[in-house]
Write a structure and sequence with these properties.
- The chain is of the alpha+beta class.
- The protein has two domains: about 1-55 and about 275-415, no CATH class; about 80-265, no CATH class.
- It is about 50% helix and about 20% strand.
- The protein has helices at about 1-15, 20-55, 85-90, 130-135, 145-150, 160-170, 210-215, 240-255, 270-315, 315-325, 330-365, 380-405, 410-415, and strands at about 60-65, 70, 75, 100-115, 120-125, 140, 155-160, 175-180, 185-190, 205-210, 230-235, 265-270, 370, 370-375.
- The strands form three sheets. Strands 4-5-10-7-9-8 form a six-stranded mixed beta barrel. It has a two-stranded antiparallel sheet with strand order 2-3.
- The longest helix has about 45 residues, at about 270-315.
- Residues about 70-80 have low confidence and may be disordered.
């Protein structure tokens, strides 16, 4: 009962100076609201990016040429010419690679597209017809690259939705001719908009036949007329056979490249799941960084509570003297002022959680940032942690003023003016 009485007295003491208590409370409210809102935005951004990648399919493998070593310096993966179009065809062997259902090699070129007086620099992908299904793309109008285009090195192009809008506005580009690095290409299709960031979206890209990209847009060739490719996208039957597919693909490529048992692979295999996991780890750092920045405001709020409590101790010196003269012990005075600081911080934390929840839900899908809307994810764990931290901050910053009040001598306190 004595503890309930102390908390009751704490409320009475705080209500005696409402404005000062509200201002102290406001610092914690703002801090908790900032932590919850920024963490919600960070987690929402993380989920948005990972969901965009997952939409492309989680049962994907990406094969890149191994890093080259020249003069003691090692280049990036994909910098060598160890992968070819024939390698890609060999991976779709139902006997040696039963876990693989589709293969899509690609080449990347950075080029300028010109239509009339408009131009734009985009990434052009040299692809095969299988790229459409493997990378989960959809045609909005026209058609995609076909096998006859590959066989005849056709100068045809499929535009991402953003590229189409940049060059043609709202005009239908199908049947129009554009210049790609000075060469005339015929527009045969436009992809549906995917939205999202530049990492995950194909809206700002264009697609041409793989053979056209290699023989007409590049000069680099290998002996025997093989076509060098930068990446081979492999679609497996499902996630359960992903490891089997990696072993099958690795075995085929090592045999084709005549790699000895003790020699390292001249290619690298990564899965979509690994890409998503790496991205999650990276964005987790971003989310924690946002939370840490917002957490600074909580510390500032705690300092504000300590300042208010120090003023309260000074104003209530005679009250402390009277309580001690009537038999109040040092621990009673200590607990009294700590309870007042905790009530302030815990109350501010609770209001901050409520306000943070409202702000997070209010921002979700409503606030526009450029062409993208915020996606927020309210986390109950973060809310509980913020509430606990706010209470702990009140306890921490309330100890010094409380200890100062508890140390006052009753006679000196009664004489204080």
């Amino acid at each position: 009962m004595i503890y309930l009485e102390i908390i009751k007295v704490a409320f009475i003491s705080l209500s005696a100076n409402k404005l000062r208590s509200i201002l102290a409370l406001l610092g914690i409210v703002i801090g908790v609201t900032a932590v919850i809102s920024l963490m919600a935005i960070g987690k929402g951004t993380q989920e948005r990016i990972t969901s965009r990648i997952q939409e492309l399919g989680t049962n994907l493998l990406f094969i890149k040429a191994g890093a080259t070593t020249i003069g003691g310096f090692t280049g990036q993966a994909g910098s060598s010419s160890s992968l070819t179009f024939k390698d890609a065809k060999a991976l779709k062997d139902p006997l040696f690679a039963p876990s693989v259902i589709e293969v899509a090699p690609e080449i990347t070129i950075r080029s300028q597209l010109v239509f009339g007086r408009k131009n734009t620099n985009v990434t052009i992908m040299g692809v095969t017809p299988q790229h459409l299904s493997v990378r989960n793309l959809e045609i909005d109008s026209g058609m995609f690259i076909s096998s006859p285009h590959i066989e005849t090195y056709s100068e045809v192009i499929v535009l991402g939705s953003q590229v189409s809008e940049d060059l043609f506005g709202f005009q239908d580009p199908i049947g129009e001719h554009i210049r790609v690095n000075g060469k005339r290409f015929y527009v045969i299709g436009v992809l549906k908009s995917q939205g999202g960031s530049a990492w995950t979206s194909n809206d700002g890209r264009a697609f041409i036949p793989l053979t056209t990209a290699f023989f007409r847009m590049q000069k680099q060739k290998v002996s025997g007329g093989n076509i060098n490719v930068e990446t081979i996208n492999v679609q497996t039957k499902d996630l359960e056979v992903l490891d089997d597919a990696i072993n099958e693909v690795s075995t085929i490529l090592r045999l084709r490249h005549q790699i000895g048992n003790d020699d390292e692979d001249d290619f690298n295999i990564t899965s979509q799941e690994q890409t998503i996991e790496t991205l999650r780890e990276t964005t987790n750092t971003f989310v924690v960084f946002l939370g840490a920045i917002a957490g600074i405001s909580l510390i500032v709020g705690g300092i504000g509570i300590m300042n208010i409590m120090l003023v309260s101790v000074t104003e209530r010196t005679k009250e402390i003297g009277i309580r001690k003269a009537m038999g109040a012990k040092k621990k009673d005075i200590l607990f009294q002022f700590i309870s007042e600081a905790t009530v302030l911080s815990f109350g501010g934390g609770f209001l901050g959680v409520v306000l943070g929840y409202l702000v997070s839900n209010g921002l979700n899908g409503q606030a526009i940032l450029g062409q993208e809307s915020f996606q927020t994810v309210f986390s109950l764990e973060v809310a509980i942690l913020s509430l606990a931290v706010s209470a702990a901050i009140g306890l921490f910053f309330g100890i010094y003023p409380a200890a100062r009040a508890a140390k006052l001598h009753p006679i000196e306190a009664l004489r204080f003016d």
